[in-house]
Amino acid sequence: MRKVAVVGAGKIGSTVVDLLVGSGSYEVVLIDQSAEALAEFAGRAQISTAALAIDNPAQLEGAMTGCFAAVNCAPYHLTIAVARAAKAAGAHYLDLTEDVASSRVVRDLAADAATAFIPQCGLAPGFITIAAWDLIKHFDQLHDVRLRVGALPRYPSNALNYNLTWSTDGVINEYCEPCEAIVNGALRETPAMEEREEFALDGVTYEAFNTSGGLGTLCHTLDGQVRNLNYKTIRYPGHAAIIKALLNDLNLRNRRDVLKDILENSVPATMQDVVIVFVTVSGMKKGHLMQETYVNKVFAQEVGGEVKSAIQITTAGAICAVLDMLADGSLPAQGFIRQEDIPLHAFLANRFGRYYAPEAPLLRAAAE
Question: What is this structure's pTM?
Answer without folding.
Answer: 0.92
